[in-house]
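## retry 2 of 3
previous attempt timed out at serialization; input unchanged, resubmitting
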Amino acid sequence: MIKKLFRKNSISPYVYSVIFGFLLYRIYDFMIKCSNDGILRTVPTIIFGAITTYIAYQQHKISSAQKDIAADKHRLELFEKRFEIYQLFLDMAVQSHKLSQNHRVDKNLEDYDDIIESNSGYIKFIENNENKLISLGEGSIFLFGPEVKIILDEARGNIFKKLKFVKILNSLRDKKGPSNNFIGEITKKDPLETVYEKAINECDKFLKDFYERKLSEKMEPYLRMTPYLSKY
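## retry succeeded, writing output
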């Protein structure tokens, strides 16, 4: 509590006030005791000392302001690094959640090509940012701590697992060939498809909860305020 009081109310002005008051008292006492010649010789010294004290006080104020600027710069840099991690994991989780496996019967739908194109875009985005996700995820322990890193590691694992499972599932379905109806979809279904479908569904459940709730809850204490207003 005492430290907070000193930080909030700097004691430097009070110290200077006491020193200045003491100097005035000594000057008054000296002038009473000294002759006129002594006073004339001493006045320039006193004036010079007062000017020196004032300059020192101003330098102290400038130094304090420079420290505040440096601290604000540090908080801004820290905020930007943290937000970069937040933004990347949010984007990757959303893109991964949107990614879907191909269905044979979709080849009869008018928007089949659009679905394939969208999925290709999601896959490309995830693959292009894979190394960055790993790098920033590993470095998150220094910016957030172990609790946040654990949830980011879990999210990264689900993102990469879903991408892998979707690719395998699409490959299995491509080998079986297209189907014109749902009956054909069932009869041509490889038993492994069910396994990967369930695994993809589990990834989707986690990813949806991650970007809608978990990510913001875990990072909110670190990103809740602008860097110039939040000193933590």
